[in-house]
Amino acid sequence: MPIKKRTLLAATFAAIGIVLVTLAFAVPGPVACTLVALQGFKSLPEGTLVEPGSSQQEQAQVAALLSGARARIEKTYGTPRAQPTIVFFQDSQKFWPLKLNSHGSTNFLGSRACVMVGPKGRNIDVIAHELMHAELFDRVGAWRKFTQIPAWFDEGIAMQVDFRSRYELPPGELANTTYVRRLESTNQFFNQSGQQLVKNYASAKAEVAVWLADVGAQSVYQRFEQIREGEMFSAAVAK
Ligand SMILES: [Zn+2]
Q1: CA dihedral for 168, 207, 218, 114, sign (positive or negative)
Q2: CA of 129 to the centre of ligand 1 (A)
Q3: Could you tell me the distance, in angstroms and rounded to a whole number, from the CA of residue 164 to the centre of ligand 1?
Q4: Rounded to an integer, what distance in angstroms lies between the CA atom of residue 155 and that of residue 31?
Q5: What's the whole-model pTM score?
Q6: Closest Cα to residue 160, out of 212, 121, 200, 120?
Q7: Amino acid 3: pLDDT
Q8: Which residues of the chain carry a pLDDT beneath 70?
Q9: Which of 53, 90, 177, 205 has its CA 20 to 30 A from that of 61?
Q10: What pLDDT, on the 0 to 100 scale, is given for residue 193?
């Protein structure tokens, strides 16, 4: 091959490589979700993926956690219908150099949601929270999710089925939660750390709880459907 052509080819591959690496760091969750297939994860009967070599006991625990989480969603909003890919991993080193949330995260690959549950997320609170993100995504659709649903609302909806006590605000602070409605993009919502991020979650939970007390949690799926059909977010969440 002429040198010029070879250089061009090498440059093209280098460029593709840079794009892939950048993508992996920008969106580690979806990339990790894709990698799971290559890591030999084991598929349980309902399609949940666990690490290869996981014990029967661990698989039973995973099944129990999932059914507990779904029961909690059902009790709050009604029967969930989303069927995201769900991956339980113990060892985030497996995905090195990607940094995965060791609790849980929900990632979106086109029209498919992928819930990654880490070693610290093996509890009903985290799993119900993540499954609720997948539920909203399934019901409003990918496009509407990214163009219509503010981050604070998505988190607030998920927090209703997440009972971790650190996200409960003391009564004195309940009056100061409206600021969270300005955090519309995920960048704005998560661009905090430590106590302020905890406060964002707690405030989103409180704001959505007040709204739900008004409109009824059982009306939420119907409202998601309206958004899917083209109604603006502000109209669909109005009374
Ligand atoms: Zn969340």
Answers
A1: negative
A2: 6
A3: 13
A4: 22
A5: 0.87
A6: 212
A7: 66
A8: 1-3, 6, 12-29, 37-38
A9: 205
A10: 81
DSSP assignment letter at 170: P
Residue the block writes with tokens 């920008």:
26
**pLDDT 10s digits, 150-187:** 999 999 999 999 999 999 998 888 789 999 999 999 99
**Strand 42-43 relative to strand 104-109: parallel, antiparallel, unpaired?**
unpaired
Ligand 1 centre distance from Cα of residue 151 (Å): 9
Tokens of 73: 């969603």
Tokens 């709204």, residue located: 211
Label residues 93-108 b or e (16+ Cβ within 10 Å = b): eebeeeebbebbbbbb
Question: Taking every pair of C-alpha atoms in the chain, what is the biggest distance, in angstroms?
Answer: 74
Q: Ligand 1 centroid vs 163 CA: distance in angstroms?
A: 13
How many angstroms does the Cα of residue 130 sit away from the middle of ligand 1? 6
User: What's the confidence (pLDDT) of residue 19?
Assistant: 58
CA 16 – ligand 1 centroid, Å: 32
